[in-house]
């Protein structure tokens, strides 16, 4: 009887030791899936410095853009730092708050994300995909990079910007 109890205790202890490594492997799979989705989704296009000038700074991947987008009547918006930096990024956000922002456009402070952020399309992501993206973002090296803006219409802009025009409008007719 002692042998059976000892074997059971050993197997139970062994199974408990496997739990963390199995969880880590599952998390690694989720992070890898999130990285894949972030890369094919083009998140770096708006959130990585240098991307719009043809020289993305991979050391500051997703650390925030250096280019703004002007949307007439809305203002100028610059791709935010979405690394886990607590001061300049999303490091103080929970995974659930990141998921909510991606799928609904609502930040933890109640503000709505910039209109350029395609959260309407991201609302269609599966729960697995959006939580994988959040896990990947939380796994990144934090980048300390304060982003300017957003800027209200008519406010002086301190960064290079692209102007987005409604169909049929020309740059000459757009407000300065």
Automatic annotation (TrEMBL):
UniProt xrefs under InterPro entries: Cyt_c-like_dom, Cyt_c-like_dom_sf, Cytochrome_c-type_DH
Keywords: Heme, Iron, Metal-binding, Signal
Domain Cytochrome c: 29-141
SUPFAM superfamilies linked: Cytochrome c
Domain of life: Bacteria
Signal sequence, start to end: 1-25
GO molecular function, one term: electron transfer activity
Listed name of the protein: Mono/diheme cytochrome c family protein
């Amino acid at each position: 009887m002692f042998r059976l109890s000892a074997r059971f205790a050993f197997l139970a202890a062994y199974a408990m030791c496997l739990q963390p490594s199995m969880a880590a492997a599952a998390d690694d799979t989720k992070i890898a899936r999130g990285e894949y989705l972030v890369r094919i989704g083009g998140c770096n296009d708006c959130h990585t410095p240098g991307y719009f000038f043809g020289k993305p700074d991979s050391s500051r991947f997703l650390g925030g853009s250096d280019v703004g987008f002007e949307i007439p009547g809305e203002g100028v918006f610059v791709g935010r730092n979405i690394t886990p930096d607590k001061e300049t990024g999303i490091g103080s956000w929970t995974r659930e708050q990141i998921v909510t922002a991606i799928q609904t456009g609502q930040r933890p402070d109640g503000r709505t994300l910039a209109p350029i952020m395609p959260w309407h399309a991201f609302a269609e992501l599966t729960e697995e995909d959006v939580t994988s993206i959040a896990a990947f973002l939380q796994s990144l090296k934090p980048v300390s990079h304060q982003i300017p803006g957003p800027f209200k219409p008519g406010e002086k802009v301190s960064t290079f910007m692209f102007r987005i025009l409604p169909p049929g409008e020309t740059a000459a007719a757009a407000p300065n």
